[in-house]
Prior knowledge:
This protein is of the alpha/beta class. It contains 3 helices and 3 strands, in the order βαβαβα. It has a 3-stranded parallel sheet with strand order 1-2-3, covered by helices on one side. α2 links the parallel β2 and β3. α1 runs parallel beside α2. The radius of gyration is 18 Å and the shape is extended. 21% of the residues are buried. The model has no long low-confidence stretch (mean pLDDT 87).
Amino acid sequence: MTIRRLVLPGPSPTGHDIARLRARLALLYEAGATAVVCDAAAVTAPGLAAVEALARLRLTAAGRPFRVIGAAPPLRALLHLVGLVELLGEPEEREPPGGVQEGVEPGDLPV
């Protein structure tokens, strides 16, 4: 497995950075990378630009392995908020579908 590293610039990426990062990511996959990790440690002032950059990188990865490492708590919180937590390698917390019980105990009333 060939894992490559892509570095997200800090303190927060700009629109120009996003285009450059997407082109670099595409080149890494074309060159044979089977997975790419994006180092976000330099992002110290995360905002919508950082979220946009990561969302666009995820789209560029097109289903190929892509994960974010080094994200500080503020960036992690933003990714949780917008539903991109899977980029951090963490499962997204979801509620079970309505009407589904995880287990039945004697004496439970029917739904």
